[in-house]
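Hey, resending since the last one bounced:
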Amino acid sequence: MQTAVQYMCAKIGLVTGKGLAGVLREHYPRVLYPAVIALVIANTLNAGADIGAIAAAINLLVPIPAIVFIVPVSLGIIALQVFGGYRLIEKVFKWLALALLAYIGAALFAKPEIVKVLAGTLIPTIRLDPAYIGILVALLGTTISPYLFFWQASQEVEEQISMGRRHLRQRQGASRFELKYALWDTIAGMVFSEIVAYFIILATGATLFVAGKTDVASATDAAQALRPLAGDAAVLLFAIGLIGSGVLAVPVLTGSAAYGVTEAFGWRSGLDRKPTRAPQFYLVIIAATLIGMAINFLGINPITALVLCAVLNGLVAAPLLVLVMLVSNSRAAMGERTNGRLLNVVGWVTTIAMGVAAIGLIVTTIFG
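The structure tokens again:
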């Protein structure tokens, strides 16, 4: 499901030569602004939660209150985006992605029972209460996330611009080879993503759940539960993974918000442009990061904030997926590169599943 959605978004960027918001502005203008507003709100809150999580993870390594790290972390991420340039950011992201392998190490250090792991992996537990459905929506929302729809399409455009295709007419259209490459590139990224996600769940199940720590209030709480079961090495890997994933996520969140806003209004955008050439784009990045930073001084728990943001993403994703499906099947936008039957089946199944989960959460929350 995740691969299908991300590939459709990549295809939109490759074929139209525009980001997702730019395509919506041209073909579905009535739904553009509500979609972008929802994206900006969700992304800003999510960025704030991730900044708090990064600071909490650093606190595990350095015995200084986490709140001290909030401002330096935020300013460092802003500096990377504003002054780094697209190619530098791309290289930093690729190396940071290796930090996610720490979660695999953390899970292995926990020494989980193989039989229980296989049973838990293959036999689902299903309940129809708000808490269970809320986590299900959060899991979907943090995997098939609205900000990734906008980011994927815009990054395909960025790649083409970095190859010298600076004019729209040079970027429009995509060969079969380019689409095939995009498909395999997306599959590789999504498989890596799902493997990491699996081991995060496994590490949590083998440590926190076993210890009865099912209401984690902070990264410190998580580490305290990890230490006696998995040792200091697992705590170190847990902290590295949390920092790496957070530093990866915040620029993507604020960057996709900036792409959405600037494309919606027809302003210049792009991480390869200097701030003076795309001032509105960088202002959105800076504003979203600073607002997210400020949220951390309101005393909101970063772990709780991450879960709530994931739920919000899960609720917002379903209507946005409808738009992605409409765009990727529009001959006016995509020409001959509309979706094939298999991609449409998986895409609509994903859209329906996300919608049913979101409606289920709303219904069970209201009626019990």
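The CA atoms of residues 50 and 246 lie 5 Å apart.

Sorry for the duplicate.
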